[in-house]
Structure formats: C-alpha cells, structure tokens
Design goal:
Helices cover 48% and strands 20% of the residues. It has eight helices and six strands, in the order ααααββαβαβαββα. It is α+β, with helices and mostly antiparallel strands and 192 residues long. Helix 4 runs antiparallel to helix 8. The chain has a six-stranded antiparallel β-sheet with strand order 3-2-1-6-5-4, sandwiched between helices.
Length: 192
C-alpha cells in the first residue's frame, strides 16, 4: 500500500513538472522578447547601474566563483542585457575570445528568457528542452543552465545570474535557492 501511495505521488510530481514546463513555454510564446529587452524604463535602470562595459569587479568575480564552486558548475556569469547584447559584468570559467570580449549577442543568450519572463529558468538538458533545443548556445555546447533574475531596487530585471554546464544536469530547488541568494548578494553589492 505504501509503495502504491509513493508511486502515485511520484507520478503526480512528474506530471506537475511537465505541466509547469509547458505553461512557461506557452507563456513565453505570448511574450515579445525583443519588446521586453527594448523597454525604455528597463534600459534606463540598467544604465543607471553603471555596470555596462564596466571593468571587472573583484567583489562580483568572487560571487560568480562562489556560485560555480557551490553548484559544481564549470561556468557562472552575471549577465546584463540591453537590447542587442549580453554583457558579462562578471564571469567565472569562460575562456578564449568570449572571456576577452565579456559579451555575446543577445540572441546567443539564454538569459534573455530570464529577463522576458522575469523568473528563474532551469534547463536540465538543452537538447530536450523545448525552449532552447535549437538555440545557438545549445548548438555551441551548452547542455544545462540555471539562471535567476537580477533586479534593480526599482524592480526592473536587467539580467541574469546564472551557472552553465556542458553536460546535462538535474538542477534542484536547493540549487535554485543557492543561486538566488548569491545573485541577490551580487545586486546588493552593486547598489550599496
């Protein structure tokens, strides 16, 4: 009897996760991502931070390093998005040209979905995730992503604090809590 009850609970949880994932994907299809990114009030709030094109910041770098270490991810990024690019205010684990440029075109960034939805994005396996399976970052080797919104004190989502891996992962609610806490600390350091 106990096994049957546990099986029913497990199936209910799986169905709930699928429904939530389909809901988020359906919600995103109703959102004009480009309009969200071009929102004047959001862009003004981003500019007011002074972080776009700012030199590396050792305090933020310590937090991206902490996120990578605590979540056992090879990469962690504090990404700020304007209408055309994702600028890396801080990054841990990047190499090559992208580490030097410290930015990507916005259409190469999963972070645009975090900004548009104004909520966390969890991608356990990008090759199977309906939202990103054909995304340029997926085609370039990103397999898993966990990102949380970076918000100004006025409530504008200006980017994402995220961890990225080249292998599929199962991100937990505990992982999400850790990342949100570190992202909040990063934004508090920026606004203090």
């Amino acid at each position: 009897m106990v096994v049957l009850v546990l099986a029913v609970i497990a199936v209910t949880i799986v169905i709930g996760v699928v429904v939530v994932e389909r809901y988020r994907t359906a919600r995103l299809s109703d959102i004009d991502i480009d309009s969200c990114l071009r929102n004047v009030a959001r862009l003004d709030a981003l500019a007011a931070t002074g972080l776009m094109d700012a030199p590396p910041n050792s305090e933020l770098d310590a937090l991206t390093s902490e996120a990578a270490q605590r979540l056992r991810a090879p990469m962690a990024i504090m990404s700020l998005l304007d209408e055309r690019r994702a600028f890396f205010a801080s990054a841990h684990g990047l190499d090559g040209e992208i580490a030097v440029r410290r930015e990507n075109p916005v259409h190469h960034s999963y972070c645009k979905y975090v900004v548009a939805l104004d909520e966390p994005l969890k991608v356990n396996d990008s090759r199977r995730h309906r939202l990103v399976k054909d995304h340029p970052a997926t085609l370039n080797g990103t397999r898993s992503y966990l990102g949380v919104p970076i918000r100004t004190q006025s409530g504008h989502t200006i980017g994402s604090f995220c961890v990225v891996d080249t292998v599929a992962r199962h991100w937990t609610e505990g992982d999400l809590h850790i990342l949100k806490n570190i992202g909040d600390r990063a934004m508090a350091r920026v606004t203090s």
